[in-house]
Amino acid sequence: MEGGNSPNLQIQHLPLATAAVSVQPHIDSFSYKENLIGALLAIFGHLVISIALNLQKYSHIRLAGSKDPRAYFKTKTWWCGLFLLVLGELGVFSSYAFAPLSLIVPLSAVSVIASAIIGIIFIKEKWKPKDFLRRYVLSFVGCGLAIVGTYLLITFGPNSHEKMTGENITRHLVSWPFLLYMVVEIIIFCLLLYFYKEKNVNYIVVILLLVALLGSMTAVTVKAVAGMIVVSIQGNLQLDYPIFYIMLVCMIATAIFQATFLAQASQLYDSSQIASVGYILSTTVAITAGATFYLDFVGEDVLHICMFALGCLIAFLGVFLITRNKKKSVPFEPYISMDAMPGMQNMHDKGIAVQPDLKSSFSYGALENNDNMPEIYTPATLPIVQEQHGSKGVSAPPYRVLEHSKKE
């Protein structure tokens, strides 16, 4: 009996073993498919956002001399740019629900690449091929490096996937690695904010590091909100969990403060510096946050991690070269050039015109108050009327003092 039953037992266990072997490749292929979907959505979103911003900028430039400050609202170009901007933001937002956070964040380099290519295509200056290559060689090299870095990021990016349910997000939120990371980030943020507000340490690294710390929390909360919405659409409702609304409020608050610090940085520094330094700092901090909160790199081998880090470095170098080639704005000189004034002595300090020495004379810029010059250059004074008061009941006649009137 036992010998007759043993073959049946073996036959019964064979399908289970076969099913167990066939399930794992299906999961791996599905996870890589999700990575590809998330990466394509992020690339599409950043590309559309770059086109939208350039369309709106083009509309503002065309109507720069208009008397109506809101004339661009009446143009189709501006509204088309606004529609594409919303579409691109939706694409980037939805990409967080499919791919890991550490894979989506570095793909923002696509917007820098697209802006550089759009700027090169729509150049209105006359140029020769040699001058064009000499002037924009850094942009071409930067675009090539950024594309290579993006390819490495997609190929060797982390492959960790889990459903963004309320239980999973709550479990990650109270885990000790993320709590330790939050304590360190809060301490660093408070120190930087103290030096920036109280000590007036307004270096670009300080401001953009504040933006990066806020941006890392924005990325973490965006992935949680987008993931819970997608899971709810698939049939498992997650919107009744309190953690969803906590993440939503944190996402909006950190995005607002992040935009505030970016606006302050744009008033102090050039946009190309903000783009390059901000991309490097924000990507680095966001990848660290994703690795501690969502455990993106758990289970990854050393080769994939090293190639992913190499892709990040190549993308950083590409963005730096692209933004380095942009023109810097020349500040307005409020003083009159002394070379244009006849008879004035030119004063230069290492080839740069400087303000003349006033020597207690009432002058401004290159306009001197010289007594030997004709009367037309002397300032006209108003007549002064003074009254001399004597004793009670006796009034002294007023007298007038006229100095350097125009008629004289």
Automatic annotation (TrEMBL):
Matching InterPro entries: Mg_trans_NIPA
PANTHER family according to UniProt: NIPA-LIKE PROTEIN 3 (PTHR12570:SF14), PTHR12570
Segments crossing the lipid bilayer: 36-56, 77-97, 103-123, 135-154, 174-196, 203-231, 243-262, 274-295, 301-322
UniProt membrane topology term: Multi-pass membrane protein
Coarse class of the protein's main subcellular location: membrane
Location of region: Disordered: 389-408
Pfam families linked: Mg_trans_NIPA
Key words, A-Z: Membrane, Transmembrane, Transmembrane helix
Name by which UniProt lists this protein: NPAL3 protein
One GO CC term on file: membrane
GO molecular function: magnesium ion transmembrane transporter activity
Family: Belongs to the NIPA family.
Subcellular location: Membrane
